[in-house]
């Protein structure tokens, strides 16, 4: 069973799954700061997860990854992850942007590790 404490990693994973792409998942212990270490690929640009590595190209930020996958592995050969209709596709991107920006206070108050790993014991 895979558990994702980052909703951003989860969204990139879902995009890869929905596209039907084969990939290798490399995990990092965020609590230990593994994503901040100089040897980690993806370090130089944003120090964030997820990072997509493909064709000697690295890309971070989950929404950028989803959009890249949609264009690089375009329909009809690959499954569509954004609506075909221009306005509906724009609305989907609007919602993605809203989730990334305006919900951060709620995410900080209710972190996903509580959802996926259970409540932490108070000392």
Summarize this, please?
Helix content is 42%, strand content 7%. The protein contains five helices and two strands, in the order H-E-E-H-H-H-H. Strand 1 (51-54) and strand 2 form a beta hairpin.
The gross shape turns out to be globular
Strand order of the largest sheet: 1-2
Helix percent band: 40-55%
CA radius of gyration: 16 Å
Unreliable runs, pLDDT <50, ≥5 residues?
A: none
Q: Count of helical segments?
A: 5
CATH topology: Glutaredoxin
Q: What's the number of extended β-strand segments?
A: 2
Residues in β-strands, percent: 5-15%
Mean pLDDT: 82
CATH superfamily caption: Glutaredoxin
Reading off the top of the CATH hierarchy, the class is best stated as Alpha Beta
Keywords:
mainly alpha; two-stranded antiparallel sheet; Glutaredoxin; 123 residues
Q: Which helices and strands, and how do they pair?
A:
Layout: H1 7-19, E1 51-54, E2 57-60, H2 62-72, H3 86-101, H4 104-109, H5 112-117
Antiparallel strand pairs: 1-2
Helix pairs in contact: 1-2
GO molecular function, one term: glutathione transferase activity
Domain GST N-terminal: 1-77
Pfam family, one: GST_C_4
